[in-house]
Specification:
This protein is α+β, with helices and mostly antiparallel strands. It has a domain at about 5-25 and about 55-310: Lipovitellin, beta-sheet shell regions, chain A (Lipovitellin-phosvitin complex, beta-sheet shell regions, Roll). The protein has helices spanning about 10-25, 120-130, 155-165, 290-295, 315-325, 330-335, 345-360, 365-375, 380-390, 395-405, 410-420, 430-440, 445-465, 470-485, 490-500, 505-515, 520-525, 535-545, 550-560, 570-580, 585-595, 600-610, 615-625; strands at about 35, 55-70, 80-95, 100-115, 135-140, 145-150, 180-185, 190-195, 205-215, 225, 230-240, 250-265, 270-285, 300-305. Strand 8 (about 190-195) and strand 9 (about 205-215) form a beta hairpin. The protein is globular.
Length: about 625
């Protein structure tokens, strides 16, 4: 069956999902690097803060033209082309600034859309693009996610991601005319380069280019480019940035071109796109956020759409139905009960995946699962059901887990498992948050400790969705528990929980813990720095990695660094892997280098380690990465 043109609007995103599936069939996380130059007036100096004034409103004229090509590999090598053009008024207003993330309401109005296909498809896409949404950025401008209405389908979600990502401008942390940044767009993670426009002397015009993609999106998450065929192309953007202290009012004008070609290899078509866009500011004024815009931050009809995750909810629903092949809850439970004792886990994992699909396609079956667990099931069956309820990532699944957690007649093991998987929810509901707050003071010590870790996870998820008030309430609870801790074990537990939350307000507490004479406390506090987006954290981690006397603390620093943008730590990691006296620390650094082994500087370091390291195990680990 021939694919209709409107289904290929997001081909460059969707094709990566196909590449990942094709790859599986074959045999067998930001600070910027800045280069010193003369300060430009439109770039913040080292004494300026990246400030976003709540209420600042910008109105732009936006124009986009895109052509997607699909070329076959057969003798005829036929090529299909699918053009699209859009013009609109693009309005943003700063809704919230919590000193880590900034949320802006955004809307496309007066949309003019041209595309091949039937009128109904065009109208559907235009209506979806016209719904207001929320952009979530880091303070330096890096786009993290969008919050979109549930009625916005996969094609429109992907289009908006690609569009807004193309307009992001990541600022230099200090005044400089040239800097680099790690950015995300609808295709993957890439290294961007910024420099003053040499043809303009006003200090306000810049050029942005994409140097290379390092990872690409797939249904399995971000994967190295080398694992998904070949990706080539270029991005060139001309920017005008106004001087001033309000980051929301900096972008005056942008004009760019993005070319991309994806060659997945045999058996798959070659896909390419050529996009041009322009943005011109029409109005800029202070004000106050509208109440209806603020509701988008907490309304259940709006869900977070991270840049790291591909958008394919419609396809996922069809995939769930195909996976189930009509199987009912009773049939899946029967199969689960009938698993042989010799099963190595693969059949159980497959059934758990099917149960999650069932809970997504038929939300009421989550209640059946909770009732079955309450009535009594073998432990392996219960654990599989709990995992499936969590894996479904639905409100109904969370409600079922909350119900089980609240049943004090159930065993401690069931309640502890329920609260553990409840903390894995990407979008915790209000009922989930309330249940976790109660559980951290439960009479059962196992439930209490697990709930603390889960509450930290939930706070991190709430912050990602711009639910700052709920996230801060969870962190406040954990801070109180840490301050009231009577034993070192309790301190370690709550430090781990606070680390899961990633709230910058915990930095003073963690810095105090880093001065503890206890190695265990210092190590836990070091690990807890991994998600904090605060200027002192990078320097703190480098200092701990290079100077702390404890091997355990230095390994904790490597662990924390592994969650953060790599480029800010390259020099320190290279120094440590060549000089640290502990083989375990050097080996941990090698594990980080495994993800970036294609970088020339990392390759050179790995060669040195493979030839000279005193530990045979470390030399072997480095040598294997060079093969």
């Amino acid at each position: 069956m021939r694919i209709r043109p409107w289904q290929l609007l997001l081909l460059l995103v969707v094709i990566l999902s196909a590449l990942s599936l094709w790859h599986k069939r074959r045999p067998a996380h930001a600070p910027t690097d800045s280069a010193s130059s003369q300060p430009a007036s439109a770039v913040p100096t080292s004494s300026q803060q990246l400030n976003w004034s709540v209420g600042t409103r910008q109105v732009y004229k936006l124009s986009v033209q895109r052509v997607v090509h699909m070329r076959g590999r057969g003798p005829e090598q036929s090529t299909d082309s699918f053009p699209l053009s859009l013009s609109a008024r693009y309005t943003t207003t700063v809704l919230q600034n919590d000193e880590v993330l900034v949320s802006l309401s955004a809307r496309l109005a007066d949309i003019q859309l041209q595309m091949p296909g039937d009128q109904a498809a065009r109208t559907q896409l235009q209506n979806a693009l016209g719904k207001p949404f929320v952009q979530v950025h880091e303070l330096n401008g890096k786009l993290r996610s969008l919050r979109l209405h549930r009625d916005v389908n996969a094609s429109a979600r992907g289009f908006l991601k690609a569009l807004i990502a193309s307009l992001q401008v990541v600022r230099a942390p200090a005044g400089s005319a040239t800097w680099h940044a790690q950015e995300l767009d609808a295709t993957g993670e890439y290294r961007a380069s910024y420099q003053l426009d040499p043809t303009n002397s006003d200090g306000q015009h810049f050029q942005k280019t994409r140097q290379r993609y390092q990872q690409v999106h797939s249904v399995q998450g971000l994967m190295p480019v080398t694992q998904l065929g070949q990706i080539s192309g270029s991005l060139a953007v001309q920017l005008q940035l106004a001087p001033g202290s309000d980051e929301a009012a900096r972008l005056v004008q942008a004009e760019g071109r993005d070319q991309l070609t994806v060659d997945p290899g045999p058996d798959m078509p070659i896909v390419s796109s050529d996009s041009t866009f322009s943005l011109l500011r029409l109005e800029s004024q202070p004000g106050s956020p509208l109440p209806q815009d603020l509701t988008m931050l907490v309304a259940p009809d709006y869900t977070v759409s991270p840049l790291q995750v591909m958008e394919a909810p419609d396809a996922d629903h069809r995939a769930d139905e195909q996976l189930l092949k009509g199987a009912s809850f009773a049939e899946l439970i029967h199969s689960l009960r009938s698993l042989p004792a010799t099963d190595g886990g693969s059949q159980r994992a497959e059934l758990q995946t099917k149960l999650s699909a069932l809970f997504r396609t038929q939300p009421d079956t989550a209640k059946q699962a909770a009732a079955a667990i309450s009535a009594g099931l073998p432990e392996p069956v219960t654990k599989t059901l709990l995992g499936a309820l969590s894996g479904a990532q639905t409100a109904a699944g969370q409600a079922a887990l909350v119900e089980l957690l609240n049943q004090r007649s159930l065993s401690s093991a069931i309640r502890e498992n329920a609260v553990a998987v409840l903390g894995l929810s990407d979008a915790p509901t209000e009922a989930t948050s309330e249940a976790l707050h109660r559980a951290v003071r439960d009479a059962d010590p196992d439930v209490r400790s697990t709930a603390a870790l889960a509450l930290g996870n939930a706070a991190g998820s709430q912050r990602q969705q711009s639910q700052v008030s709920a996230a801060e309430a969870s962190v406040d609870e954990l801070i109180q528990l840490y301050q009231a801790a009577q034993t070192e074990d309790e301190q370690l537990l709550y430090l781990q929980a606070l680390g899961n939350a990633g709230d910058p307000r915990t930095l003073p507490l963690l810095q105090t813990a880093l001065q503890s004479p206890s190695v265990a406390v210092r190590s836990a506090a070091t690990q807890a720095l991994r998600f904090l987006s605060a200027p002192p954290v990078e320097g703190q981690l480098v200092q701990l990695l290079e100077q702390d006397s404890s091997v355990e603390v230095r390994r904790a620093a490597v662990f924390a660094i592994s969650f953060r943008p790599f480029l800010g730590f390259v020099a320190s990691l290279q120094k440590v892997v060549l000089t640290d006296k502990a083989a375990s620390v050097r080996h941990d650094v090698i594990q980080i280098f495994a993800r970036y082994k294609q970088l020339p500087s990392v390759k050179d370091t790995l060669r040195s380690v493979a030839e000279r390291d005193p530990s045979p195990e470390v030399r072997r680990a480095a040598s294997e990465l060079l093969r």
